Amino acid sequence: MISDKPENFSDFREWLHEVIFEADTKAGKIFDEILLVLIILSVFTVIMETVDDYDQKYHLIFFILEWIFTIIFTIEYALRLYCVYKPTKYATSFYGIVDLVSIVPTYLSLLITGTQYFAVIRAIRLLRVFRIFKLGSFVKQSHILRTALRKSRDKILVFLFGVSILVTIFGAIMYLIEGGQNEQFDSIPRSIYWAVVTLTTVGYGDIHPNTAVGQFVAALVMILGYAVIAVPTGIVTSDIINTSKEHDPISTQACKYCSKEGHASDASYCKYCGQLLN
Description:
By secondary structure, the chain is mainly alpha-helical. The protein has eleven helices and no strands. The radius of gyration is 25 Å and the shape is flat.
């Protein structure tokens, strides 16, 4: 396939892409390791800033650190856009959106107080650890899990629809049984809430039946809850096993055109856009 590499794409930008997006080279691995340390420190700073005792003593330090991290991540985001062939592709990709959202809260805090705490979303960027410690094995497993979840999507939706019907029925039944004697079951929606909490075995205990019949129905719902938990687990596990047999070894290489990863270790072309890989 003919490459549509930009004519003004210099060797420096090629090297920069290799350092920032690849974990196969020493420079790329060091870059990602430094980036992960900065992400961890920035998330830790945001978390500690919410503790009143520490914030009162070190508010200025937290403020300065947060802006230092934000400026660094802003420069990094700009460099990522600079060194890919199609910046819009990266900007709209999963990691591109996460990278942008991770720096926006601090700038918004200049207009809206408190928005800087949303910077904890930077923790999602720690997913890049799979590229460092690789590596291919970890990346492969993440793709297997994602593929399995996608394959089991329809089954899970049908299952959730069935559960929704169950909790509605049990909620209505409990309202009829307990409604006249127990003020906690004062409506069907509130009774459905009880059914959801009980069926999922969460069991807050804020609502509970008082009558013998209601307690009997509650016991049935509790027992049924164990089966409800087992079904989606079995569905996803089955698809994971089947998917793992289909996947070939995966590299950590990122396409310069569409910025997507997850290519086979022996792939020469991107499986998403068809362009030539490194």
